[in-house]
Design brief:
Layout: E1 7-10, H1 16-25, E2 33-36, H2 37-43, H3 45-53, E3 58-64, H4 68-79, E4 85-89, H5 94-107, E5 114-118, H6 126-131, H7 139-152, E6 157-159, H8 162-171, E7 175-178, H9 197-202, E8 207-210, H10 212-215, H11 220-230
Parallel strand pairs: 1-2, 1-8, 2-3, 3-4, 4-5, 5-6, 6-7, 7-8
Helix pairs in contact: 4-5, 7-8
Length: 242
Amino acid sequence: MKRLEPVYFALDFETGQEAMEFLENHHLCGIPVKVGMELFYREGPGMIHQLKEAGHSIFLDLKLHDIPETVRRTMLNLAKLNVDVVNVHAQGGGTMMEAARRGLEEGSPEERPLLLAVTMLTSTDQTMIEKELLLDRPLIEVVEHYGELAEINGVDGVVCSVEESQMIKEYTNLYALTPGIRLEGGIKHDQKRVATPAVAMEKGSDSIVVGRAIREADDPHAVYQQIKEEFHGDFQHHSRLN
Protein backbone atom coordinates (compact mmCIF):
# COMPACT_ATOMS: atom_id res chain seq x y z
CA MET A 1 0.00 0.00 0.00
CA LYS A 2 1.26 3.46 -0.86
CA ARG A 3 1.83 6.23 1.65
CA LEU A 4 0.03 9.41 2.58
CA GLU A 5 2.12 12.58 2.40
CA PRO A 6 1.79 15.26 5.10
CA VAL A 7 1.08 18.22 2.78
CA TYR A 8 -0.54 18.24 -0.68
CA PHE A 9 -0.68 21.30 -2.93
CA ALA A 10 -4.00 21.51 -4.77
CA LEU A 11 -3.38 22.04 -8.48
CA ASP A 12 -6.53 24.07 -9.08
CA PHE A 13 -5.52 25.37 -12.49
CA GLU A 14 -7.49 25.46 -15.73
CA THR A 15 -4.82 23.70 -17.80
CA GLY A 16 -1.98 21.28 -17.30
CA GLN A 17 0.44 23.76 -18.82
CA GLU A 18 -0.48 26.35 -16.19
CA ALA A 19 -0.02 23.80 -13.43
CA MET A 20 3.37 22.58 -14.63
CA GLU A 21 4.64 26.11 -15.27
CA PHE A 22 3.56 27.21 -11.79
CA LEU A 23 5.38 24.29 -10.16
CA GLU A 24 8.53 24.94 -12.16
CA ASN A 25 8.52 28.74 -11.90
CA HIS A 26 8.12 28.65 -8.12
CA HIS A 27 10.59 25.85 -7.42
CA LEU A 28 7.92 23.40 -6.29
CA CYS A 29 9.02 20.51 -8.47
CA GLY A 30 8.53 17.12 -6.86
CA ILE A 31 6.22 18.20 -4.05
CA PRO A 32 3.09 16.13 -3.30
CA VAL A 33 0.11 17.44 -5.29
CA LYS A 34 -3.65 17.01 -5.46
CA VAL A 35 -5.26 16.72 -8.89
CA GLY A 36 -8.98 17.43 -8.81
CA MET A 37 -11.86 17.18 -11.24
CA GLU A 38 -11.19 20.46 -13.03
CA LEU A 39 -7.69 19.53 -14.14
CA PHE A 40 -8.21 15.80 -14.64
CA TYR A 41 -11.35 16.17 -16.72
CA ARG A 42 -9.57 18.62 -19.02
CA GLU A 43 -6.18 16.92 -19.32
CA GLY A 44 -6.94 13.27 -18.56
CA PRO A 45 -4.38 10.58 -17.72
CA GLY A 46 -1.65 12.47 -19.58
CA MET A 47 -1.54 14.98 -16.74
CA ILE A 48 -0.96 12.20 -14.24
CA HIS A 49 1.84 10.66 -16.31
CA GLN A 50 3.51 14.06 -16.64
CA LEU A 51 3.40 14.68 -12.91
CA LYS A 52 4.69 11.19 -12.09
CA GLU A 53 7.60 11.66 -14.47
CA ALA A 54 8.42 14.88 -12.62
CA GLY A 55 8.54 13.00 -9.32
CA HIS A 56 5.28 14.15 -7.72
CA SER A 57 3.27 12.03 -5.32
CA ILE A 58 -0.37 12.37 -6.46
CA PHE A 59 -3.67 12.48 -4.63
CA LEU A 60 -6.28 12.04 -7.39
CA ASP A 61 -9.33 13.76 -5.92
CA LEU A 62 -12.32 12.64 -8.01
CA LYS A 63 -14.73 11.76 -5.17
CA LEU A 64 -16.40 8.83 -6.88
CA HIS A 65 -20.06 8.29 -6.00
CA ASP A 66 -21.99 5.75 -8.07
CA ILE A 67 -23.34 2.23 -7.92
CA PRO A 68 -20.79 -0.24 -6.48
CA GLU A 69 -19.89 -2.06 -9.70
CA THR A 70 -19.29 1.17 -11.62
CA VAL A 71 -17.03 2.41 -8.83
CA ARG A 72 -15.16 -0.90 -8.74
CA ARG A 73 -14.44 -0.80 -12.47
CA THR A 74 -13.46 2.86 -12.33
CA MET A 75 -11.03 2.27 -9.47
CA LEU A 76 -9.55 -0.66 -11.37
CA ASN A 77 -8.68 1.76 -14.17
CA LEU A 78 -7.47 4.55 -11.87
CA ALA A 79 -5.14 2.13 -10.07
CA LYS A 80 -3.30 1.60 -13.35
CA LEU A 81 -2.35 5.30 -13.41
CA ASN A 82 0.01 4.64 -10.47
CA VAL A 83 -1.41 7.46 -8.36
CA ASP A 84 -0.85 7.35 -4.62
CA VAL A 85 -4.20 8.33 -3.11
CA VAL A 86 -7.79 8.23 -4.45
CA ASN A 87 -11.17 8.86 -2.87
CA VAL A 88 -14.90 8.22 -2.88
CA HIS A 89 -17.91 9.81 -1.18
CA ALA A 90 -18.79 7.96 2.02
CA GLN A 91 -22.42 8.81 1.27
CA GLY A 92 -22.26 6.15 -1.45
CA GLY A 93 -22.53 3.56 1.30
CA GLY A 94 -20.55 0.64 2.65
CA THR A 95 -20.98 -1.68 -0.32
CA MET A 96 -19.72 1.00 -2.69
CA MET A 97 -16.67 1.73 -0.52
CA GLU A 98 -15.82 -1.96 -0.30
CA ALA A 99 -16.17 -2.24 -4.09
CA ALA A 100 -13.80 0.70 -4.53
CA ARG A 101 -11.13 -1.04 -2.49
CA ARG A 102 -11.56 -4.27 -4.47
CA GLY A 103 -11.18 -2.35 -7.71
CA LEU A 104 -7.91 -0.84 -6.52
CA GLU A 105 -6.59 -4.23 -5.47
CA GLU A 106 -7.54 -5.78 -8.81
CA GLY A 107 -6.04 -2.95 -10.87
CA SER A 108 -2.78 -2.35 -9.01
CA PRO A 109 0.24 -4.19 -10.42
CA GLU A 110 2.12 -3.75 -7.13
CA GLU A 111 1.22 -1.42 -4.25
CA ARG A 112 -2.34 -0.18 -4.38
CA PRO A 113 -3.25 3.48 -3.82
CA LEU A 114 -4.60 4.54 -0.46
CA LEU A 115 -8.38 4.83 -0.45
CA LEU A 116 -10.03 7.73 1.36
CA ALA A 117 -13.72 8.46 1.90
CA VAL A 118 -15.08 12.00 1.97
CA THR A 119 -17.33 12.42 5.00
CA MET A 120 -18.83 15.87 4.42
CA LEU A 121 -17.48 18.57 2.13
CA THR A 122 -16.00 21.58 3.93
CA SER A 123 -18.67 23.72 2.22
CA THR A 124 -21.33 21.85 4.21
CA ASP A 125 -22.69 23.14 7.51
CA GLN A 126 -25.48 22.18 9.89
CA THR A 127 -28.02 24.35 8.09
CA MET A 128 -27.37 22.55 4.82
CA ILE A 129 -27.52 19.19 6.59
CA GLU A 130 -30.99 19.94 7.92
CA LYS A 131 -32.63 22.06 5.22
CA GLU A 132 -31.12 20.65 2.01
CA LEU A 133 -29.90 17.12 2.74
CA LEU A 134 -32.81 16.50 5.13
CA LEU A 135 -30.66 14.70 7.68
CA ASP A 136 -31.96 14.93 11.25
CA ARG A 137 -28.63 14.37 12.96
CA PRO A 138 -25.87 16.78 14.04
CA LEU A 139 -23.11 17.16 11.45
CA ILE A 140 -20.45 15.75 13.77
CA GLU A 141 -22.58 12.65 14.38
CA VAL A 142 -22.99 12.08 10.65
CA VAL A 143 -19.23 12.38 10.14
CA GLU A 144 -18.55 9.91 12.96
CA HIS A 145 -20.97 7.40 11.45
CA TYR A 146 -19.44 7.75 7.98
CA GLY A 147 -15.99 7.25 9.47
CA GLU A 148 -17.01 4.07 11.23
CA LEU A 149 -18.73 2.82 8.07
CA ALA A 150 -15.59 3.54 6.04
CA GLU A 151 -13.38 1.61 8.47
CA ILE A 152 -15.72 -1.40 8.52
CA ASN A 153 -15.55 -1.57 4.72
CA GLY A 154 -11.77 -1.47 4.40
CA VAL A 155 -11.16 2.20 3.62
CA ASP A 156 -7.79 3.57 4.74
CA GLY A 157 -8.83 7.04 5.81
CA VAL A 158 -11.29 9.87 5.53
CA VAL A 159 -11.34 13.38 4.16
CA CYS A 160 -12.89 15.59 6.82
CA SER A 161 -12.62 19.07 8.28
CA VAL A 162 -10.01 19.80 10.92
CA GLU A 163 -12.67 20.22 13.61
CA GLU A 164 -13.79 16.64 12.93
CA SER A 165 -10.36 15.02 12.60
CA GLN A 166 -9.85 14.74 16.35
CA MET A 167 -13.06 12.76 16.69
CA ILE A 168 -12.09 10.50 13.75
CA LYS A 169 -8.75 9.74 15.39
CA GLU A 170 -10.44 8.98 18.72
CA TYR A 171 -13.04 6.57 17.38
CA THR A 172 -11.27 4.90 14.44
CA ASN A 173 -7.83 3.81 13.21
CA LEU A 174 -8.25 5.75 9.98
CA TYR A 175 -6.03 8.41 8.49
CA ALA A 176 -7.53 11.91 8.59
CA LEU A 177 -6.77 14.13 5.60
CA THR A 178 -8.07 17.66 6.00
CA PRO A 179 -8.70 20.30 3.33
CA GLY A 180 -9.90 23.82 4.13
CA ILE A 181 -6.44 24.90 5.33
CA ARG A 182 -5.72 28.63 5.55
CA LEU A 183 -2.92 30.65 7.06
CA GLU A 184 -3.83 32.95 9.94
CA GLY A 185 -6.07 35.71 8.60
CA GLY A 186 -6.70 33.94 5.28
CA ILE A 187 -10.01 34.28 3.44
CA LYS A 188 -12.43 31.32 3.75
CA HIS A 189 -13.96 31.72 0.25
CA ASP A 190 -16.63 28.99 -0.23
CA GLN A 191 -15.35 26.74 2.56
CA LYS A 192 -17.14 27.09 5.89
CA ARG A 193 -15.07 24.78 8.11
CA VAL A 194 -11.44 25.89 7.85
CA ALA A 195 -8.33 25.95 10.07
CA THR A 196 -4.64 26.81 10.11
CA PRO A 197 -1.90 24.17 9.65
CA ALA A 198 -0.97 24.45 13.32
CA VAL A 199 -4.54 23.79 14.46
CA ALA A 200 -4.78 20.88 12.03
CA MET A 201 -1.70 19.36 13.63
CA GLU A 202 -3.09 19.89 17.14
CA LYS A 203 -6.38 18.22 16.21
CA GLY A 204 -4.62 15.10 14.92
CA SER A 205 -4.76 15.52 11.15
CA ASP A 206 -2.36 13.16 9.39
CA SER A 207 -2.30 15.16 6.16
CA ILE A 208 -3.51 18.53 4.87
CA VAL A 209 -4.42 19.93 1.46
CA VAL A 210 -3.57 23.55 0.68
CA GLY A 211 -4.52 25.40 -2.49
CA ARG A 212 -5.26 29.12 -2.55
CA ALA A 213 -2.87 30.01 0.29
CA ILE A 214 0.03 28.82 -1.88
CA ARG A 215 -1.34 29.57 -5.33
CA GLU A 216 -2.22 33.20 -4.58
CA ALA A 217 0.88 34.01 -2.50
CA ASP A 218 3.49 36.53 -3.58
CA ASP A 219 6.12 33.88 -2.87
CA PRO A 220 4.46 30.43 -3.22
CA HIS A 221 7.65 28.53 -2.36
CA ALA A 222 8.12 30.45 0.89
CA VAL A 223 4.47 29.95 1.86
CA TYR A 224 4.69 26.22 1.08
CA GLN A 225 7.70 25.93 3.38
CA GLN A 226 5.91 27.96 6.07
CA ILE A 227 2.92 25.64 5.91
CA LYS A 228 5.15 22.56 6.21
CA GLU A 229 6.85 24.08 9.26
CA GLU A 230 3.55 25.05 10.88
CA PHE A 231 2.28 21.53 10.34
CA HIS A 232 5.23 20.28 12.39
CA GLY A 233 8.11 19.83 9.96
CA ASP A 234 9.37 16.42 11.08
CA PHE A 235 5.88 14.90 11.43
CA GLN A 236 7.10 12.63 14.21
CA HIS A 237 3.75 13.04 15.98
CA HIS A 238 2.16 10.85 13.30
CA SER A 239 4.12 7.61 13.48
CA ARG A 240 1.91 5.95 10.83
CA LEU A 241 3.36 8.32 8.24
CA ASN A 242 6.95 7.30 8.93
